[in-house]
UniProtKB/TrEMBL annotation:
It is an enzyme of class 2 (transferase). GO terms for molecular function: metal ion binding; molybdopterin molybdotransferase activity. It holds the Pfam family MoCF_biosynth. Belongs to the MoeA family. Pathway: Cofactor biosynthesis; molybdopterin biosynthesis. Keywords: Magnesium, Metal-binding, Molybdenum, Molybdenum cofactor biosynthesis, Transferase. This is Molybdopterin molybdenumtransferase. The keyword Magnesium applies. One of its GO terms (biological process) is Mo-molybdopterin cofactor biosynthetic process. It comes from Hydrogenobacter hydrogenophilus.
Amino acid sequence: MISYEEAISTVLEHTRVIDTERVFINQALGRVLAEDVLSDTDKPPFDNSAMDGYAVRHEDIKLASEENPVKLKVVGELSAGEDKSIVVEKGTAVVIFTGAPIPQGADTVIPFEMVQKEGDHILIKHPLKAWSNIRKKGEEVKQGELLIKKGTHIRPYEVGIMASVNKVLVSVYRKPKVAILVTGDEIKDVGEIIEKPTQIRSSNSYVLISQVIRSGGEPHYLGIVKDDQEEITRALAHLKDYDVFITTGGVSMGGKDYVQYLVRECGVDVKFHKVRIKPAKPVLFGTYGERGLFFGLPGNPVSCSMAFDLIVHPALLKMSGRSDYAHKTFKAILKEDFSRKDAERREFVRSYVWFEEDKAYCSYSPKTQSHMLTSYIDMNAYMVVYEGIKEIKKDSLVDVILFP
Ligand SMILES: Nc1nc2c(c(=O)[nH]1)N[C@H]1C(S)=C(S)[C@@H](COP(=O)(O)OP(=O)(O)OC[C@H]3O[C@@H](n4cnc5c(N)ncnc54)[C@H](O)[C@@H]3O)O[C@H]1N2
Ligand code: MOO
């Protein structure tokens, strides 16, 4: 059985970045940038005021004091957006509002609250440094500078930055089309009548649909098929219509666990089946066609969702062009003792991580088994219990991975 590291590196090694498309910036949120975005101008494009106040010459006010206030004549007014030409001559000041261009001759802005008004004059009793309260042309960004790198996950801030450089149509990676096929004789979809007490509602369908959306994919729910070779084969015939194909159930040792055999017959080149992790040990991975990725996830609800988070999610991010696809592990202080009987597999325990002062703490769900989907409630991370570790004492440092 391979390790988690071997599994994830095999998956990522076979993950190809998808093609691109162009969208309007108001559709770009959550997508991945497929081009570098450069600045079309200097930012700010011209010297302008950071405050409402008076534009003055530093030379005039540099010796101002309580005892020897400087008196300047107010000769005009400039609002944001105005481009009238006013010159600040020696001994004069111009009323200026935030964002307005700095008039010729001025090199300092004094906020209103720092001066005393006397008719059409102002009194200044404190000196300011030259260029105070002035936002200089190009101080943030130079024309042609790289603003947002290809591979960046677009958040509202990046949308705004693109708008600020008039980037209306933007090249993004296409969302991977992800098929979700649920298998199991006992599985019933939401809304279906439960005829026997042994039937189970398909939570996996809806966890997976949601996870695919959260990972930037486009889910295509193919519904539930029975543990029937013909039904499964018929569904797998559509493999090539999708960039990624996910099944749940039927990958373990049961007499009706057909998925693992049928995928091979349907053209999937299986790269691994079974990983030394708990839960989700029987996870299966293979490739098909040009870039197709096949994931056979176990039926147990936690095994299914955890295998998605830790194995499928990084692959979907990489396929969608993201540069930050690897998940990040960090340290937290365990708040209570942890123990387990079998230390053969690496275990990912649903946990809650929080920050207090400058430290991260971790507390784990008492529900550790793979059929207990409610073990996710109130939790936000997986605590990693490595192979060979049976006990972890309270106050020890543990590795944690935040949920995507
Ligand atoms: N002899 C062995 N038996 C099992 C082993 C093993 O190594 N040797 N592995 C166990 C592990 S670990 C897992 S995980 C499961 C995975 O089995 P399958 O992937 O074949 O899943 P199923 O048997 O079809 O279902 C398992 C369990 O999950 C429930 N289920 C299935 N689909 C859904 C769904 N869509 N929504 C909610 N719940 C679902 C199903 O009713 C079963 O209870 O195998 C162990 N066995
Ligand atoms: O791996 Mo299974 O997922 O332990 O229950």
